[in-house]
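Support request from a user on the community tier.

User writes: "When I paste my C-alpha cells into the form, the page sometimes reloads and wipes my input. The last time it worked, I copied everything first. Here is what I submitted, just in case something in the input itself triggers the reload:"
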C-alpha cells in the first residue's frame, strides 16, 4: 500500500507495509485467543514482532474501532467485533489509507486526455481487483485457513507464486 509517506508508490506496485502485516498477524492471534484480552507483549512474542512498534499499531487499531483495550492485571487487547466481520481492507485503510491512489488522488479523480484517455478505467479496475481480495478475506478466514473460493482459485495458479 503506502511506502513511508510517499503515495507515489501506490497503484503501480502494491506495497504491504510492515504496519499492516504486523496488524493482521496480531488480529489473527487475538481471534485465535477467543474473548480473553492479550497483552501487546504477548502478541509481539507470539508473532516475533517488535513490541514497541506493535504497541503503536495496536493503539492505531483501537482508535479505528477494530480493537478494545482493557487496563489492569487482566488487561490487554481483544477484537471489538467478531473476526468474521473484520476484513483485511478494514485493517489497511486506517493504517495506510485508501487501497489505491494515483499521484495522491483516488482513481476516480484522475483525468486523462488524448491517447491516455482510458487510463482511468485501468486504475479503477486495479482498485476493484484489490477490493475483490482485501474486502472478501476476513481475519477468521485467515485463522481457519478456509479462504473464500475466489481467493483460493487465485492462489492455485502457479504463476501467482512467481515474481515478475
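"...and here is what came back when it finally went through:"
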Amino acid at each position: 500500500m503506502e511506502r513511508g509517506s510517499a503515495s507515489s508508490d501506490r497503484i503501480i506496485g502494491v506495497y504491504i507495509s510492515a504496519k499492516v502485516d504486523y496488524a493482521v498477524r496480531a488480529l489473527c492471534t487475538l481471534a485465535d485467543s477467543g474473548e480473553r484480552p492479550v497483552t501487546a507483549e504477548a502478541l509481539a512474542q507470539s508473532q516475533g514482532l517488535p513490541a514497541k512498534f506493535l504497541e503503536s499499531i495496536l493503539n492505531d487499531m483501537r482508535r479505528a474501532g477494530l480493537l478494545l483495550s482493557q487496563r489492569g492485571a487482566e488487561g490487554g487487547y481483544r477484537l471489538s467485533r467478531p473476526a468474521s466481520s473484520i476484513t483485511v481492507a478494514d485493517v489497511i485503510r486506517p493504517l495506510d489509507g485508501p487501497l489505491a491512489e494515483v499521484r495522491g488522488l483516488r482513481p476516480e479523480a484522475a483525468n486523462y486526455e488524448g491517447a491516455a484517455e482510458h487510463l482511468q478505467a485501468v486504475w479503477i479496475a486495479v482498485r476493484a481487483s484489490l477490493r475483490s481480495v482485501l474486502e472478501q478475506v476476513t481475519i477468521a478466514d485467515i485463522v481457519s485457513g478456509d479462504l473464500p473460493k475466489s481467493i483460493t482459485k487465485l492462489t492455485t495458479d502457479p504463476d501467482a507464486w512467481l515474481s515478475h
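Agent notes: The reload is a front-end session timeout and is unrelated to the input. The helical segments are 18-32, 40-47, 51-63, 88-96, 119-134, 139-144, 149-156. Residues 7-161 form a domain with the Arc Repressor Mutant, subunit A fold (CATH 1.10.10.10). Escalated to web team.
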